[in-house]
Amino acid sequence: MCCESKRRFLLLYATQKGQAKAIAEEIWQQAGAHGLEADMHCMSEMDKYNLETEKDPVVIVISTTGTGDPPDTARKFVKKIQDKTLPPDHFAHLQYGLLGLGDSEYMFFCNGGRTVDRRLQELGAQHFYDTGLADDCVGLELVVDPWIDGLWLALKEALQLQKEGMNSAVGAVSSSLSTALHAVHELDLSSEVQNLKLEDEGARGSDVLSQKLDDVSLVAPVRDAEPSLIHSVPPVSQSALNTPALPPEYIEVQFQDTQGENPHLSSLISEGATFEVPVTKAVQLTREDAIKTALLLELDIADTAFEYQPGDAFCVICPNNVSEVEQLLHILGLSEKGDDFVCVKVKQGTKKKGASRPQHIPERSTLKFILTWCLEIRAIPKKAFLRALVECTSDVGEKRRLQELCSRQGASDYTRFIRDSNVCLLDLLHAFPSCKPSLSLLIEHLPKLQARSYSVSSSNLYQPGRLCFVFNVVEFPAGPSRPVSRKGVCTGWLAELVAPLLHPSKNTLDTKGESCSTEKISIFPRPNNAFHLPADPSVPFIMVGPGTGISPFVGFLQHRQKLREQHPDWDFGEAWLFFGCRHQDRDYLFKQLRCFLENGTLTHLKVCFSRDSSTAQVAPPKYVQDVLRLCAKEVARVLLKERGYFYVCGDKKHMADDVSDAVVDILSMEMEADKLEAMKILAMLREAKRYLQDVWS
C-alpha cells in the first residue's frame, strides 16, 4: 500500500456519554495501519457530510439513551431520514456497516442503532458488513473488538467492488465475512456471543506486547492462585499481550497567573435553559434503621419559567465529591494549584484527526472547577485510558498489570476487577502508586460529568410553584478493588447539602424557629413524551411503583385529586396503585397514600412488605408482582376490556422484568392463551403506549 493513496470511508458516530465517540476514534486510529483513511464526523455535523451523494462505504457507531431513544447528537439525523416522503430507493447507492451500543437491562436494547439501521434499509441502503449490537450490561468489548477486527476485510472488499464497478455484488460481501467474525453473524449480544474466544484474535489493529518470560518474572510474585486488581495468574501473567493502540495526545494545559471568574454552570449544559432554584424543604421518608435512606426534596420554581407535567423527569447539575477532588489534586502533585486558572487548548502538532477542546471543558477556568464540575472522575476507565496510563507508570510490575487489564488476554480480568467492581480513576491511582498521569491526560480520557436525572414527584396544579422529587442516597460499599465506601455523586452531595434542613440547629433557624437555609441547585427539564396520565380521565389505569418507584405516581395522584375538585362533573376511571417496600414501619415512603384512597382519588391501594415476618396461616405476598397475580382478573379487565393503561416505575433488574413476566402470566391465564400469544399482546400494549415504564438499573 505504500505506493497507493489511502482509500477513504466515511465514519459517523452519535454519542450521549462519549462511548460511541471513543469507539469511533479507535476505528479512526486503526484505519491507517490497514491502508485506509476514515473521514470521521459526529452525526450532528450534517454540514460536513452528505449521505445523499456519498459514494464511499459508511461506518456508523451509535449509542442508545433513555429507554430506547437515539442519542441527542443523532436526533436531527433520525428526524431527517424518518421523513415519510423519501422514496424507497433514496439511499440505494449507499453501502454501510453499523455498530449499535446499548444495555440489555433496558427493554429497547440498542434501539438507537436498530432505528437507524431499519430506516436505512427501508430507504434502499445495503449492508457491506453485518450489524453489531454491543451490550454494556456484560461488556461492550465482547462485541466491539471482534466487530472492528472483521471490519477491515469487509471495507477492503467493498472498496474493491466499488473500484471495479461491481456495486451490484455488494450483497455478497456479508456472507464472506464469517471467517473474520468467527461465525458471529449479527453480533447481537446473546449467550453465544459471551463465549467468543478473544485470546486467539492475533494482533490486528493493536499494539502487540510480546514480552518474554524473563520480563514477566519482573512482576511481583503472586502470593495465591487468585487474581486481583493488582496481580494476575497464568495464563494471563505469562501471555504475550494484544493491547489497544496508544491514543495520541492532543490536549495542552497552561497555568496562568491572572485571576478571574469561573464560567457559569449553565455554560456546561447543551440541553437548553438551566434554572438555579432554592431547596425549600427536605424530609427523610425512611426510619434511621432502614436499609436505604430515602429523602424528599422540595424546590421553589415559582420565579422561573420551568414547566413540567406529572411523569416528567428533570436533571440536577451536581459536582464531584470535594474530598475526592482534593485527593486527586494531591496525587497529581497539584494541591497548591487548585485555585489557579488554567488555559486548555489543542496541542500543536497532535496526530489526532480533527482534535478540538472537549465541549464540556471551558477554555479558561480554575483547575479545581474542571475537576469538580466538568469531569466524571468516578467514571469506569476505558481500556484506551488504561493503555495511556501504562506510559505514566514507572514500576515494572504495575506497568505489566495495567497492560494486562487493557489487553485481549486480560478481558475477563478487566470485566471482573474494573468494570463489575465499579473501579474509578482514584481507585486505580491508589492501587498503582507509581502511575502519575498528567492533567492533560485526564482531560483527554475522562468523560463529561453528567447531570443526574430524577422523576418529578408532584403536580404543579396541586402545588403551584413547587417541584418535589424523591431519591435513595446511593451507597457503594468498600471492597477488594475499592478501599473506601462512597455515596453516589449526586445523591451524596444532595444529602450533605440539605443536612441543615433535615437536622436544623439553633444556628440555622430564624427567630420564628423555621429554617433559613437558602441552598440552591441548578436544574433543567427532561420532559417525558409518554409517561403521563391518560389524556382521557375516564380511562382506568394501574400504577406499579415499589420503593422510590412510587415517586411519579404521587404526582399523578395529586394532579388527579385537583382535577376531581375542579371538574366534579367529569367521569374518572379506576386508579390502582401497587406499592411495596421492605418494612412497613421503616420504609413505607408515603403513608398518606391512604388519604388519596379515602377521598376517592385512588380506587385501590395494594401494599406488600418483603422483609416483615407474618404469623398468618397463609403468608401474605412479598413483592408487587405477587400482589398483581392475586388481582389477575381485575388487571386483565382493565387492560383488555376497558383499554386501560399500565405504568411501572423503579428498579429494572430486580422488579420491572418480574412485573412484566407477571402481566404475561395474567394475560395468558385470563385469555386462556399460550404464553407466546400473551407476550404478543403485551408487545402491542407497549407499541400503543399503554404499557409504560420509567425504570433504572
TrEMBL record:
UniProt-listed Enzyme Commission number(s): 1.16.1.8
The FAD-binding FR-type domain, residue ranges: 272-534
Catalytic reaction annotation: 2 cob(II)alamin + A + 2 H2O + 2 H(+) = 2 aquacob(III)alamin + AH2
A Gene Ontology cellular-component term: cytosol
KW Flavoprotein (keyword) present: yes
Sorted UniProt keywords: Amino-acid biosynthesis, Cytoplasm, FAD, Flavoprotein, FMN, Methionine biosynthesis, NADP, Oxidoreductase, Phosphoprotein, S-adenosyl-L-methionine
A biological process term (GO) from this entry: folic acid metabolic process
Pfam families hit by this protein: FAD_binding_1, Flavodoxin_1, NAD_binding_1
Named cofactor requirement(s): FAD; FMN
Cell compartments where the protein resides: Cytoplasm
GO function terms (MF aspect): [methionine synthase] reductase (NADPH) activity; flavin adenine dinucleotide binding; FMN binding
Main location: cytoplasm
Domain spans labelled Flavodoxin-like: 9-152
Keyword field contains Oxidoreductase: yes
Record-annotated membrane-spanning stretches: none
Complex formation: Forms a multiprotein complex with MMACHC, MMADHC and MTR.
This protein's name: Methionine synthase reductase
The organism's taxonomic lineage, starting at the top: Eukaryota, Metazoa, Chordata, Craniata, Vertebrata
